[in-house]
Inverse folding.
C-alpha cells in the first residue's frame, strides 16, 4: 500500500469506514483472489518435482 488510509468517523468519533487509493484496493482484491485459489487447492495431492520433470521430458517438453 502506498498512501495512508483516511477514516470516516461517526458522530462519536468512532472509525466506521476507510478510504484507500483505488490501486491499493485492486491490489488487495488480487491478493484475496490468490488466497482463495490457494485455499481451494491446499489439500490436493502434490507431485514430486522429479516426476514432473520426467513427465515433461517424456512428452518432449523439456
Amino acid at each position: 500500500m502506498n498512501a495512508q488510509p483516511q477514516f470516516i468517523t461517526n458522530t462519536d468519533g468512532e472509525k466506521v469506514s476507510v478510504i484507500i487509493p483505488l490501486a491499493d484496493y485492486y491490489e488487495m482484491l488480487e491478493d484475496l483472489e490468490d488466497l482463495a485459489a490457494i485455499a481451494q487447492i491446499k489439500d490436493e495431492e502434490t507431485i514430486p518435482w522429479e516426476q514432473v520433470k520426467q513427465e515433461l521430458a517424456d512428452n518432449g517438453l523439456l
